């Protein structure tokens, strides 16, 4: 990762403003034993990057919300392939009970369902719980009966932005999206399941973003 | 939010580098019809902020990983209180069936359990599903029997960093944390449930961070 390359004096200015802000450029110059003119370029850089904020007639304060456009840019550039994890896939004739066992053994919240190697549906803890409440015999019903079926599955592709995946997760109120690869066969488009992105992946990414380098 | 305040010429430089990078300062000066000396302060600012990267003997390139320390700072400064949502709380003698109904009606993944107004436990979709698989009569067993009980509940407080909440969610492999307030009574510490932070809140925050202002 790139670190912003501040000079020692700029670091000192930030420290002084954190401790004493709001503080005027006169007061800063005095504390650093330099002229105001000598500070001007440093203060220009620190305000331009959004690290400090200049309040007219008040002085400089430390801004806790720096360089928003950079964060925006940074986040938009992380791709699905950088955070996705292994999907857990079962066939659509798997019995509900066996599917739930799969869910627990793999410690995931959503199973993706395939038929002939292609995505046909998805089923979540919520779907299973609904079935359990209804008193359905889980040893008799195949997962294909209760799953959400294509084309009602929202998905992403490997080169999409994680940001897009997060947006779709929130918008469609799901926990997890399959990551797919498009396969054209007999002029029909099919989707191969190659990964998944869930709220867990996004939370893990958030922790990584906040880590001390 | 603060926007980084770039001059029109700096914006033009970024655009040129995005399109033509790697590009030397000579080539940039030519395209902008100015001298290299005139560009020097702008290039200094753009590399210092991490927007551009200067590669010796190659030229300037657009950096997709800018100012990591700023992102770090920014993320660490968002507090639980800025993102938390309403907790869904039931009493520990609520029947499992009724608790699951609560879960669905409120569309949440975790219920927090209180007794005399204080946190005593938590129960998730996963816990409910386990019970359903076992064939337990959900109309007879109270939620207090199956919940995870204090002191095994991980929580956060309103003034904690969301980053800490995300860390705890990942570390303890839970979907949601209660946000608590400490109450001292008869020299005993109790916890009042005042909110919750879940993977959904973190994902929503991530979407917000990536939004175009």
UniProtKB/TrEMBL annotation, chains A, B:
Domain CBS span(s) in chain numbering: 147-213
Pfam family name, one: CBS
Domain of life per record: Bacteria
Gene3D superfamilies: CBS-domain, Winged helix-like DNA-binding domain superfamily/Winged helix DNA-binding domain
InterPro entries: CBS_dom (IPR000644), CBS_dom_sf (IPR046342), CBS_domain-containing (IPR051462), HTH_11 (IPR013196), UCP026546_HTH-CBS (IPR016842), WH-like_DNA-bd_sf (IPR036388), WH_DNA-bd_sf (IPR036390)
PROSITE patterns: CBS (PS51371)
Keywords from the UniProt entry: CBS domain, Repeat
Protein name: Helix-turn-helix transcriptional regulator
